[in-house]
Amino acid sequence: MSDVSATMDLHRRDAADKLRGRTRYTIDRYLPGMLHAAVLRAGVPAGRIVRLDTSRAARMPGVRAIVTAADAPGMIGIGIADHPLFARDVIRYDGEPIAAVAAATLAQAQAALAAIDVEIEPFPAVLTMADALASDAPLVHPDWRSYEVLLEGSARGGNVAWEATVVRGDVDAAFARPDVEIVESCFRVGRQNHVAFEPRAVVASYEDGRFHIETSTQVPWSVRNATARLLGVPASQVRVTVPPVGGGFGLKFDLAVEPFAALLARASGRPVRLVNSREEEMLTCLFRENADIRIRSAVTREGDIVGREAVVLMDCGAYGGEQIFLTTMTAHTLGGNYRLGSVRMVSRAVYTNTAPNGAFRCCNGVYNTFALERHTDEIAATIGMDPLAFRRRNVLGDKDLGATGQVFEGSVLGPMLERMDTLRDATAPPPARTDGRLYGRATTVGTWFVFVGPSAATVNMNADGTATLVTSGVEIGSGSMMQSLPQIVASTLGIAPEHVIVRAADTDAAGYDVGVGGGRTTVSLGAASLSAAQEVRTKLLKVASEMIEAAPDDLVMRDGRIEIAGAPGSGRTVAEVATRAQALAGPVSGTGAFTGAGVPAMPGCVAGHFIDAIDIPVFAVHDCEVAVDPETGHVEVLRYRVVQDVGRALNPRAIHGQIQGGVVQGLGYALHEEVTIGSNGRVCQSGFETYRVPLALDVVPVEISLYEGAPSIGPLGTKGAGEVPILNVGAAVACAVANATGKRVQALPLTSPRVLELLLDRKQDLTLHHIADAWADNLIRSHQTAANT
Question: Where in this chain does the record put each Aldehyde oxidase/xanthine dehydrogenase a/b hammerhead domain (predicted)?
């Protein structure tokens, strides 16, 4: 196998069909006799169901089935099982499902919803984390103690769904040193909607005692297992297949509409289609969570960070969901980037009576990087050091300790900062600026990591010289399933990537996989695919050696042929060898599996974590230039540059596309996309009329430099490249705006009204009174107790 042969600017084989509208997404699927479903949702944020009568609705024209909480006995969750499919007696957020209907037409299903007799007694609601953490706050989950715990070791209680801590070193001693400056910063970020082009959609059927779920998801195995748990059936009774997905970004990294359709299919005996409307997507989307952050650092005048502590409050909404897991990531994002003498952090997922939140591209990392980099600039200003010089002095390097005590390999961020200097210096100086706008620039760094976890793959060699790759991977738009995986298999077998057929995800056909997200497709599925292809290669070379009369070690596979090394034109075609192998011993196939290596952390450092240390760190350096209109507060991004750690760039063309798209999505988070929740608990932005996403005129071409060579356990030295491009954007824009205006930027998004308030000094410094001054007072129980539980 030639590593070089795996690297190419391979175009996407699915691009033409997608551009011409020929791709059939889940939303395009129809089955004979299919019914249409709709979900009845609560109209209050908190309350008790006094009466629920579906008898009149069941008699409505076209209605074939109605299901409620009585039909779904299970509870799901991450870390704790706190989430029922339907509200059971208690309403916890505006929009919570109460019942679902299947009818011959969607209009009939919606008419039946209106005929359901439901009475809800409203309760006082807690809509903010400050409200939820108040001493007299009503509990979103009064029965939280009764929930099944799925992962031991965390502290939880009251409206705190989960608490994860990290402590390394003597932080109190660091802050007590006489030679340090203590810098404290507070930050707040709002929610962000994924705005995937294809809403969450499913077509479910029930036949021969098994469910078949066709769905738009990133996690077919999670959908399989969670649906079975909710419905109280064995997971083997659920089959999940995934057509092309019209965008995910983390929205579809969790269970969504699938169990409703499955229940209705079983109850009606007919296939059932359920598709969220755009309004439902906007009101009940698993948003990137809003967060409040306080961070303090003890820094010497020379610029060494001897101590750091932080409190991060993450609004998980009415149920724990992904935020339970994401509490882990604070240690690796807010605790990343820089060498720390000692550190202690707590990350808390807080229940509120609002729509549940979830994963979103670089989840947790985007806002923690914003907070960390703004805090870093405030440190540099306090000690009188150039912010770029401060970063060069402190960025993580070879053998440095991370927050959890893991040891990093290789000096990556330092050389990447130098690469950014080169990229910036190559730019012609801007013309004289005489338009009265305020100009600023900033360079920020970021630390992310690739989610690894279990993946499986099978490669079947076909007699015509093509190969079929079978995995549970999903094509969500990033192109990894259409580009990097075929490249890896093709280079191993000496064939063209176009000759690798990629099978759509099917949990009945492929082995377990954690899911597509977190930058893990090329790494985890790629490693499993490489292993499977290598097994096939070994089998083919053995047969070819007999046909060519040469030792297997003397043979090479390239350009569709198996030849003697150094003798082009010798040997046989791969198709001939595959045909012979099949005739001798049957079909030729190989299987592969992969999971994380398990990097060690320092014992006792973490409590309540799902990941103590990170297998594959990924780094990014961003540089942003902005102009701020002092009359309107409008921020224009003039130039944007990215140096991204990719390990090994298998497909530079594809990575460039991911970086450009990720930066634009990050600009939406930084400047435009604002979610507000009214006093009634409802999201105020119900459509594109009120939710502003970046438009064509907001897009800025990104100058890109791919940094290769950093250590990675990924196949052929690769790292995930699709997740990290959004990581630094909010930080880079915020730091540039702060430099342009001379004002303290503490919140995102930087909408024009918010920037104008800063310019007019009408914005008071952010204070987070619901975060206690003493770090330990923000804990349910001490870190030592939690770590030893």
Answer: 20-124
What span, in angstroms and rounded, lies between the C-alpha atoms of 406 and 401? 6
The region that residue 608 occupies, defined by phi over 0 for left and psi between -120 and 50 for alpha, beta otherwise, is left
Sign of the CA dihedral with 755 first, then 758, 764, and 769 last = positive
Tell me the mean pLDDT in the region 336-362: 97
Q: How many CB atoms lie within 10 A of CB 459?
A: 28
**Cα torsion for 367, 371, 373, 375, to the nearest 10°?**
180
pTM of structure: 0.97
Tell me which residue of 469, 462, 459 sits closest to 13, measured CA to CA: 469
Residue 133 above 90 pLDDT?
A: yes
Torsion of CA 66, 68, 72, 78, to 10 degrees: 120
Q: For 343, left (φ over 0), alpha (ψ -120 to 50), or beta?
A: beta
Q: Is the Cβ–Cβ distance between 538 and 555 less than 8 Å? A: no
Q: Which residues contact 431 (CB under 8 A, 6 or more apart)?
A: none
The number of residues making up the chain comes to 789
CB–CB of 424/623 below 8 Å? yes
Classify residue 669 by its DSSP letter: I
Return the structure tokens found at 570.
């010798």
pLDDT tens string 667-690: 999 999 999 999 999 999 999 999
pLDDT at 371 over 90: yes
| Alpha carbon distance 398, 394 (integer Å) | 12
**End-to-end Cα spacing for the chain:** 49
Give the pLDDT confidence score for residue 4 in this predicted structure.
57
Q: Is the peptide bond before 749 cis (omega within 30 degrees of 0)?
A: yes
pLDDT digits (tens, 9 = 90+) for 239-289: 999 999 999 999 999 999 999 999 999 999 999 999 999 999 999 989 999
Query: What integer pLDDT is reported at residue 788 of this predicted model?
Result: 64
Indicate if the alpha-carbon torsion angle 360, 365, 366, 368 is positive or negative. Answer: positive
Q: Which DSSP symbol is given to 725?
A: G
Tell me whether strands 572-573 and 561-564 are parallel, antiparallel or unpaired.
Answer: antiparallel
In one letter, which amino acid is 53? D
Q: Side-chain half-sphere of 584: how many Cα atoms within 13 Å?
A: 14
The whole-number pLDDT of residue 523 equals: 95
Question: Cα(508)–Cα(99) distance, rounded to whole angstroms?
Answer: 30
How many Cβ atoms sit within 10 Å of the Cβ of residue 464?
A: 11
Residue 172 backbone dihedrals phi, psi, to 5 degrees: -60, -40
Average pLDDT, the chain: 96
- pLDDT (tens digit, 9 = 90+) per residue, 277-326? 999 999 998 999 999 999 999 999 999 999 999 999 999 999 999 999 99
Q: Is the pLDDT of residue 3 over 60?
A: no
Q: What's the token pair of residue 166?
A: 């990290």
Query: Shortest CA distance to 100 belongs to which of 29, 52, 140, 141?
Result: 52
Check if the beta carbon of residue 463 is closer than 8 Å to that of residue 575.
yes
For 508, 526, 707, 728, the CA distances from 619, given in Å and listed in that order, are 37, 20, 9, 10
Instruction: Please report the pLDDT score of residue 785 as a whole number.
Output: 74
